[in-house]
Amino acid sequence: MIRIGTSGFSYDDWIGPVYPKALPKSELLGYYAREFSTVEINTTFYRIPDWRTVEGWVRKTPSGFLFSIKAYRGLTHERENPDYVLFTTSLRPLAESGKLGCVLAQFPYSFHASTPNRHVLEGLRNGLNGLPVVVEFRNAGWVTQTTLDLLRQLDFGFCCVDEPRLPGLMPPSAVATGPVAYVRFHGRNSAKWYNHKEAWERYDYTYSGEELREWIPNLRQLDGSAAMTLVYFNNHFVGQAVRGARTWGSYSWKSISGGGVAYGDVVYHRTAAIAAGTL
Hints:
The protein contains 13 helices and 8 strands. It is of the alpha/beta class and 279 residues long. It has one domain: Alpha-Beta Barrel (TIM Barrel), CATH 3.20.20. An 8-stranded parallel barrel has the order 1-2-3-4-5-6-7-8. Helix 1 links the parallel strand 1 and strand 2.
């Protein structure tokens, strides 16, 4: 099963390009969920959400909708006395409703492949015991068989990425090491990756159809290697992530699966929503 969505759903610059201008902010997630069946939540990196917020996510989305939750930075970046209990407790409404796809543990570029940092991954497994976890490395030094073996041992998924082909960054790859395969499309804006004034400039990129088609063999491989494959577009500026996801929905599924994929088995639901008159 392949599910596709975007990294985040609530951006001011999506009003107009994605959402109707008159749509209340409280209704953004419900509107988003009429078209896609999964979303990656990044705000949890900056603060652990309260139960009221998480219960709202559950209430505003239909049965079968899945959330991927980025791990709080205290677990992946600061790493001093990480409060796993508080973080995992906050996700309980998602887990109990069957709407938790996985936790995305994104580590910084400064997190190098070393023995102490491998121990950090082991501690993360213990702290997030029982939860599906995918690890995103930013440093290409982790791209080794030793790393993949460790992830399999810990039952962690490996986050595949599409990003600028710059020295030291992660290369494009299609590897599944756990029950959840995962892909993030960050965009290929090499000029602004390091040289930018605002964070959004890094993700100001529109994928061409040809660039997306490069990934069809990779997604086919992931789909055959894991029970579920989650794909998110992170090039979010002015809704470019939504355009990328819609492009996939328009042509790629038969190419990936060999044909006969039902919308119930695929993340992208726009065509079905249009047919039903809900979009």
